[in-house]
Amino acid sequence: MESTRVIAVRHGETAWNVGTRIQGQLDIPLNDVGLWQARRAAIALEDEPIAAIYASDLSRAWQTAEAIAGPHRLGVIAEPGLRERAFGRFEGMTFSEIDATLPEESRLWRTRDPDFAPAGGESLVVFRDRVIRMAAGIAARHPGELVGLVAHGGVMDVLYRAATGQGLQAPRTWALGNAAINRLLWTPQGFALVGWADDRHLSGDPLDEAFA
Questions:
Q1: What is the spatial distance between Cα 33 and Cα 40, in angstroms, rounded to a whole number?
Q2: CATH code: domain of residue 139
Q3: Which of 9, 90, 100, 154 is placed for a possible disulfide with 85 were both Cys, Cβ 3.0 to 4.6 Å?
Q4: What is the pTM of this model?
Q5: Cβ-proximal residues to 42 (8 Å cutoff; 6+ apart), any chain
Q6: Domain for residue 207, yes or no?
Q7: Would strands 76-78 and 4-10 be described as parallel, antiparallel, or unpaired?
Q8: What domain range is 28 assigned to?
Q9: Is 12 among the domain residues?
Q10: Is there a domain that residue 204 lies in?
């Protein structure tokens, strides 16, 4: 089977990104900066031969994907399997609120315990398996083509770890900036890294996902 080239893009900025508030699967839209970042990503990718664009159905990813799809005259294909990790009762809380009110759960979260799931949420193991299954399934539909995936910081983190052989608990040393462009190659053997965190199309420093 031919390989598939993948461009993976995290959504643009939201007000909750700025406020370090956990979004998870809550449907938070882009703020004005995020809308600008989405347009800049679209310009940066307008000459790429993208065959299809898939996105999380949450507004922040969907708005980013629609901007990127515009110059290509493509419709965006919704894939709920590309949603951010479900954080259960963490959703809507700031990082500092989690630390103050749920200290033991915060410790498990921050140390990346692979089996820990906030009440009502997903563990890292369950989240990783969902994302890899979905991303690999999409790539397998497009042998020899270039596809776009627009999703979330946690999704980008899973893809990077899969492409580089990093374990779930390995400390993160790679960026997950809003609207950054990431490039991967998929074969039936898995993902390989081509390029990561290209944000030359953005001015300033895009916000990084601190605890994806």
A1: 10
A2: 3.40.50.1240
A3: 154
A4: 0.95
A5: 67, 68, 70, 71
A6: no
A7: unpaired
A8: 4-198
A9: yes
A10: no
In a domain, 139, yes or no: yes
Question: Is 152 one of the annotated active-site residues of the chain?
Answer: no
Q: Which of 13, 72, 79, 84 is catalytic?
A: 84
Q: How would you write the pLDDT of the chain (212 residues) with one tens digit per residue? A: 689 999 999 999 999 999 999 999 999 999 999 999 999 999 999 999 999 999 999 999 999 999 999 999 999 999 999 999 999 999 999 999 999 999 999 999 999 999 999 999 999 999 999 999 999 999 999 999 999 999 999 999 999 999 999 999 999 999 999 999 999 999 999 999 999 999 999 976 666 665 54
Give the residue among 40, 46, 44 at the shortest CA–CA distance from 71. 46
Q: Is 11 a catalytic residue?
A: yes
From 11, 79, 122, 152, the catalytic residue: 11
Are residues 182 and 8 in contact, defined by beta-carbon separation less than 8 angstroms? yes
